[in-house]
């Protein structure tokens, strides 16, 4: 009777566990997404990417500010009231003595254009411009990091869903196999060929298989939630992804990857740029010891009374000159700034060295994971076929009364482990590839 019930509900169980994740995501129409769709959404909605874009705009503004500070041009208009001074008296009626009027009361108007240009500052202006451009490059590399992180996280979340789907299929196959074995074992028990223990043992295995199926279904639901959270999709909105976890042969050379990291890695580039910025700050600190030379020019006009304002060239005055500023009392402060700049440069050097070492380690680690997953995939492809053939033999032996239940269960377990190892290796293979691309700054590109 138990076998009949299990056989009756097996198709229903299959349908339920395949479509339950969609119902678990609440109601509404199901939206379907491919991997490219998910990556596109991540590029549009990632807060890190949007923040990095604003960082580039900010850095460009600093560059423009540095350029504009070299030449300063300002226009000035000034109005001065020079009318009669009002007479005031004290409480006793005596004059305050401040009531003397001007002989010719009138208003004063001043107009002028001033310009100043830094001719020499010990290299501080040039190095300041250089630092601004380097900081812009840092902002651009930070944008690359944000893009690569977003694409990498999206791919991993996408592959996690594909893995969970495959695990559900595998667990369903396992449950179907145990259901068929339970039916055969009960027939043997009714014919007195096996003890009650064998029936109970397979029932236990079937319950364990259902438990694993429930866990796989929950993993799929959680994986969908992770992807929706990552892409800023309403968590109550049901979605479905379109894709398949397959193995594609891809060649990778460790030496070429390490060489590429020297120029392509965003983290490595940022560390190198920060070292150059620190070096320029040392040059700026040295520039504080040199005099500053500035040229200036004024073109102005003054008029007493509105009617005397003139825009004729003879009524305007032009003056120009050069100013030299020599630091004297600030030398002690300049020495302190130079020591601080030297210390910051040493720190930047150490960080660059650490970043290079960390990047090499990360590249090597991801490469070794890639090699491992490729070897496991090829090995488990063969192992799956071998274990399935072994399972068929074990089933035939058990049906003919030659093999034992333990042999059958062991053969079934071997198939399950082989498929699970294969699926996990597929996931790790895609994850390792994406990890390498992220480290090299190639995610989100066509490289």
TrEMBL record:
- Per the record's keyword annotation, is Transport included, yes or no? yes
Cellular-component GO terms for this entry: cell outer membrane; efflux pump complex
Where would you say this protein principally sits, based on its record?
membrane
User: Gene3D superfamilies annotated for this entry?
Assistant: Outer membrane efflux proteins (OEP) (1.20.1600.10)
Q: Which domain of life is it from?
A: Bacteria
- State where the protein is found: Cell outer membrane
Which GO terms label this protein's molecular function in UniProt?
A: efflux transmembrane transporter activity; porin activity
Q: Which InterPro entries match?
A: OMP_efflux (IPR003423), TolC-like (IPR051906)
The record's keywords, sorted A to Z, are: Cell outer membrane, Membrane, Transmembrane, Transmembrane beta strand, Transport
Segments forming a coiled coil: none
Belongs to which family?
A: Belongs to the outer membrane factor (OMF) (TC 1.B.17) family.
Descriptive protein name: TolC family protein
**Organism per entry:** Candidatus Zymogenus saltonus
